[in-house]
Description:
mainly alpha
Amino acid sequence: MLRVAIQVKELISSNVTSVIETASDPVKMLGNLQREIEESIIALQGERTRADRRKSRLDEQKTQQEMREADWGEKAKIAMDHGREDLARQALMAREDCRAALAKLDADSAAAEADLKEIDEAISELEAKREETREQILRQSAADAHHASTETVGRAPSKADRHRNRISELEKRTEFATDGSIEKRAQASVEQEIETMRRESKIDDELAAMKGAGSKKAPRKRSAAKK
């Protein structure tokens, strides 16, 4: 994706007029530029399809995690109602795992959405550049035909002599898309331990609240065992 992104940015930022002025054969250079633009559009459309599928998968996973989160919360309440604090604690820990997974899925889904928007904008800009290039090809072809009809036999174009060995260079802009900065992982074990403490504290508070609510309820009568 990064290679395509760099190429796309180069094409979008390319100066068509400069290509014409510096090329020994402007029409040929413009034709090459047009083909590169069309190939980049095709490549981006493929990237868009993959990004769209990825976002759909993430949205499905989010729905499943939300259902699991709610289910573990209900299971914790049932366990406390039956006096099983140990099971309630495990259920709440599982619920917290679901919430952490949901936060990750939310971030991934937002990133996929941003990729889709960026790709759509790039395709739109490339299509505009392609139309500009087509128009320049038509104009240059007409100008070349007119020049050929009026040019003195044996006279070489001075501009062509000056720029025969020069190749136009497209301005490099790599900021269009990057793989994203690598997150720092220093002190990961400390952060993980603190997060575990936070979760356990939260669960202790919730269990205490459940105990308080359960103590207000009338004790359940156990049925007499059959002899």
